[in-house]
Design a protein that fits this description.
Elements: H1 2-17, E1 20-26, E2 36-38, E3 45-46, E4 55-59, E5 66-68, E6 79-81, E7 89-94, E8 99-110, E9 117-123, E10 130-131, E11 136-137, E12 156-160, E13 171-177, E14 194-205, H2 209-227
Antiparallel strand pairs: 1-14, 2-5, 3-4, 4-7, 5-6, 6-14, 7-13, 8-12, 8-14, 9-10, 9-11, 9-13
Length: 228
């Protein structure tokens, strides 16, 4: 009987550790080759994968901003914008209901006169945003450049979010321009671009109460066996 209970408990423990899942993702392959939006706001770009529907978007101070879909990081499309000022951003939304241990990964590059310094911010209400960690640096898209055939892994990064993002109806991530310094060390120009690709928001399924109880029972039985 004890062996049967222990087997159930161990199975429950496996469930709690093996449920990492893609919540929402954007490959941007749903954008056409001629995709162009001009204005301060890009409008919403629908997610292309994951358990939940989400939107990518951009917001700039300049009404002359052009949003477009150039070559991605080893793919046909990415999401790009020019006319960057400090505080302008890319934004990505998802749900995290039923999930914790939220993390986001993405690839990003820029033209020589595109912005270099960005910060990753999060929110649970779309109004108040908090930065995660320090600013990060975006590399100029040269040597190697992004192409549809070969990706540049060094332009990708993954960051874990705080527990405040766990089990929420809607969560928000922003990649925010933090300075006027360009990727080549000069100044950001109106025509300078930054582009993102392969944005993925992930989480781990929160176990049901019954699974937690079984996992706890498994730990108790294991402890007793060690003392026996």
């Amino acid at each position: 009987m004890k062996n049967s209970v222990l087997a159930l408990a161990l199975a429950a423990g496996a469930v709690t550790t093996a449920n990492a899942a893609v919540l929402t993702s954007w490959s941007f392959e749903n954008l056409s080759a001629g995709f162009t939006v001009t204005g301060a706001a890009s409008g919403n770009v629908a997610s292309t994968g994951g358990l939940f529907a989400g939107n990518a978007s951009g917001q700039h101070a300049a009404s002359t901003t052009n949003y477009s879909s150039p070559t991605g990081n080893g793919s046909t499309r990415s999401f790009s914008a020019n006319a960057w000022a400090v505080g302008d951003y890319f934004q990505f939304t998802s749900s995290s209901l039923g999930y914790n241990n939220i993390k986001i990964s993405w690839g990003q590059t820029g033209s020589n006169t595109g912005p270099r310094d960005f910060g990753l911010f999060y929110s649970t209400d779309g109004v108040s945003f908090t930065q995660i960690g320090a600013n990060y640096i975006v590399r100029a898209n040269a040597g190697p450049a992004w192409s549809s055939g070969t990706g540049v892994p060094t332009d990708n990064q993954t960051v874990s979010g705080p527990s405040a993002l766990d089990n929420k109806a809607t969560i928000y991530f922003r990649l925010v321009n933090r300075s006027t310094t360009s990727t080549n060390g000069g100044s950001v120009a109106a025509g300078g671009t930054s582009r993102v690709d392969d944005v993925i928001i992930e989480g781990t399924a929160i176990p049901a109460p019954a699974s937690l109880a079984l996992a706890g029972l498994g730990g108790l039985i294991a402890a007793r066996r060690r003392r026996a």
